[in-house]
Amino acid sequence: MIQRCSRDFATEAEYRQLVLQVSADLNNRPSVLQKLEIERLHLRPLPVERFADYDPVVAQVRSTSTIEVRSVTYSVPSRLIGQQLTVHLRHDRLDLFLRSQFVETLPRLHPHKGQKARRRIDFRHVIESLRRKPRALLRVQLQADILPSE
Question: Are residue 34 and residue 84 in the same domain, yes or no?
Fold first, then answer.
């Protein structure tokens, strides 16, 4: 009716003719599968090797059992202090490797502009080293992150 620029019909037969013409046009369009087959003719094969969907980052484990990746501090197990980790930085997580051996996966935090540096401290990573030192929890800088909030 938009194509005709009018909704007025002289007869009912004229209206039926328009409906038949529009439905025939719609039914004669290629289906999704037919369109896909046309596109497949132009597609190139996928590459043999999968592309890397992560950014490799090298991080040194500090004496505080933490690493810094893209301005965010993460805790790692205290047995890794002094080691150099390879971090596969993905959009949602960090995969940690010591040499070629997988160590752990951590959820990724994204820094926000205008806020202080973000950090993710897991008390299970540092509790063993804190347990060996009496009263260590009194002076620990990351106390707010380690202890559960009330």
Answer: no
